[in-house]
Request: fold
Amino acid sequence: MASPTFSSTKDGEFIDPSPSSMPQAPKSSYTAALAPLTSVFSRFSHWRKSLDLPNPGTVENLQKEVKSTHLTNFMFDGARADLTKSLSMNPAFQVTHSFVLGSQVSAPSYNFGAVFANNDIFLQGSVDHEGNVSARMNQGWAENSITKIQTQLSSQAGHSMIQLEHDYQGQDYSLNAKAVNPWPTDLTGIYIGNYFQSVMRNLALGVETLYQRPTPDMSEFTTSYLAKLTSDDKNWIATAQVQPAGILQATYWQKLHEKVEVAADLQVMASPQRRDAIATLGAKYDLRMATFRAQLDSTGKVSALLEQRFAPTFAFLVAGEIDHFKNAAKVGVGVMIESTNLTPEEMGMPPQH
Reply:
């Protein structure tokens, strides 16, 4: 091993030329002024990471379990048929033909849709018999960062729209920014931002701000507050959302059994102009080849939906609703048929012998 080399001065003294012995340049005053702040932030980040708090999920999915149990997003009347054909599994590509007839709340319609998806991107588009076009794109930049674009083109005035959105999921928080029909010259449009933070392993708090600017000389600014309480085993979830206009929405969801879920939703409006409240109770039963949902609310409506699968590619639906206060009723029947040209191996199924 080579021995270190030292240089000598006129007086015979030896100088170590290694980098550690060289004089250091003084730190800038700007860096020195920020040093206490960066130190505090670093300590706070390490302490926050040591808590090992979970990600609370997104504000958009705050009531996801309740919406999946209740019939609000599944109820229909009249007759409907959804015919789906899978053309590819990886990447996923399928087309759908949807028909609706005899509904009391909507006119007969036909809709053609297509879906394409891989590990990074999701594309969905549809067009109906009147020429209305809707499209959606989700682009994943990373596992925790997604950009979403949604647009709708309609021949009816005021029905066309575009929505730009970005989701970011941190270790124990989520951020979302959204713009609906933004116009950069005069900043008109609707702008929404929210932040959701886990403060304990079972409790998350958040805030959502909405800024509306329909015209350059008119604007509105509102803020709502969110809370989510989850059990250790995630078998029950309670949420609450409070808006300054005197509106409160509280939900509770519980998994009673592996195949049984119940949910409750309470909406209260206590503004000076109007005082009202609506309570909804619902249950969901997952059977071996069927799913049954039932719902009851304080407005006198009782509804139920049965989805029976006779085969993995064929399902029959029956829906019904009775409004006791209005003495009205609605009934709906539907079928969902899926077909594919893919082999069992292409679909990820074990080969048939």
User: Anything to note?
Assistant: The mean pLDDT is 87. Helices lie at 29-51, 64-69. The first strand starts at residue 7 and ends at 8.
